[in-house]
Structure formats: C-alpha cells, structure tokens
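tool=predict chain=A
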Amino acid sequence: MSDEPATQDIEETAEGLFPIRTVSSITGVNPVTLRAWERRYGLIRPHRTPKGHRLYSQEDIQRIQRVLELLDQGISISQARQLVERPEPAPRSEAIDPWEKYRQRMLQAVVRFDEQAIEQAYSESLSLYPEEMVTRRLLLPLLETLGERWANHSGTVAEEHFFGSYLRNKIGARFHHQFRRGGGPRLIAACLPGEQHEVGLLLFCLAAANHGYQPVLLGANMPLEELPLAARRANADAIILSSSYQPAAETLSRELQRMARSAALPVYMGGRASIRHRDALTRAGVTPLGIDIGPALARLDSDLRQGG
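tool=predict ok
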C-alpha cells in the first residue's frame, strides 16, 4: 500500500517535506524498510499528515543517508540508532557484522535443504536493509561460498542447485513485480552459450530495473548469433552478457567479436569470466563489467545516459 497520494510521489510539498516514495527514490531504501526503521528502531521520525501519511524533511533524508553509511561499514541496524548522531564513524572493532550471521543462517539452511529457513533469513534481511545491500553483502558472497564448497568437495552440487532454484524463483518474481516501464535505456540481458548459472544475471537485471533501466531478460545458455536480431526487435540500447565459468575458446576469440560487430550496439559482460578474460573481451569489442553490480551500473550510466 502507498503511504501517499500519487500526486505527491515526485515533488516536495509546499512545506518542504517529501513523501515516502520520493525519499525511497532518493535514498534507495524501499518504503517497507523505511517504516521498519521508524517502528522498530526509531531511526527516523517523519511528520504525519492528518490522514496519517508520512512526510520527510531534508534532515530526515540526511539521517537516512548517514544510516546507510554506517550499514555499509558493517554496523548492525540495531547499533545504528546509537551511532547515527555521532560526528565520527564507530571503530570497526566495535561493529558486529550482521551479514556474516545472515550468511551463516542461510548456508546452514541450504545444507539442510530447508527452504523455510532460507525464506525467513532472506525476508528478514530485506525488511531491514536496502535491496542492493542485501544482494551485495549477502546473496553474492553466499553464492561464492557455495561455489567454493562445490570446488573443494566440502559441499555438493545439490546444494548449489537447490539455492540457485530458490533464488531464480524469488528474484524472478521480484524482478517482474518491481519492473517499471519507463524511459530508461533498454538492455538485452543473456548468459553466454553453455552458461547455465543465471542467478547473477537475474540479480543484475533486478538492480538495473530498480535503477530505471528496462532489461529484456533472455536467461541462460543463449546463442550469440541470435542476439543482434533480438536487440533490433527490442529497440535495445545495449547488450549485457554474463558468464561465471570458462567460456569456449571459440566464443572468446571469434563469436563475441562477430556478434558485437553485427549488433552495432555497446556490448558488456559481467561475471567472473569478465575478470579472467578482460583483455580478450576488450579485443572483441566487449566491455568487461566485473562482478560488482554498483560499479557496473555506474559504467552503464556513464556510457548510455550521458546526454540524459
């Protein structure tokens, strides 16, 4: 449910106060989390209209941004209320990293194939922290851990598949639910041929949609020769590729270059392979994005939105 009338979603009120959806857009903290910070921790105390709608001042927005800084240092949300007024950040030794606790909770749930326990930990983290932060500090490190467990034989393929299936369902539903049609650049998003792990691409598309882009998700194991036609039909502004494992030598040496020339659009690639094969990708006319979604989106902003 919206806290505000639709007419208040874009601009500040006459009193210099902002509705919750505007504050969410400015700070990246969703309205559910803003309400939780208010009710459970007293981190912010917005003004209320006679009808009960929340309105936030510029000082409230600055306070929210200060909270985000503390959270990014590894400070738990429960500590932030005590620290947010301080002029200096708390020493790192004072902080108890909440993300390690969440990662351990979810890892143990995966090992037990306990979907309910995974859901509880994931939903709790989303209710208290911004979605981008949950992705960066919880989901991506946990995927790394599961991959390492499989590689060193301390885990199983079944664990990785179980968690991957859970995330595909959850993130796919969030992506389609939160997708907003607008005027942002359109992105064709696909995994390289042979790449079956699409969770990283899903996480990127969810973040890109929240960032104002219009991703067209094609998913795993996509033949490269079909992408230029798909991009033209979709009127896309760029092609985003993803690969976490070793691409075929032919893909790196010839197929990517052929596809990029045919598409005549900017082509980017994220995932582990974009780090390992940065030079080969650059030679093929593909821009490597690495594995950090924030800098990847910043690079897209720089390339695709310079005139916007």
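The chain is about 55% helix and 10% strand. The radius of gyration is 21 Å.
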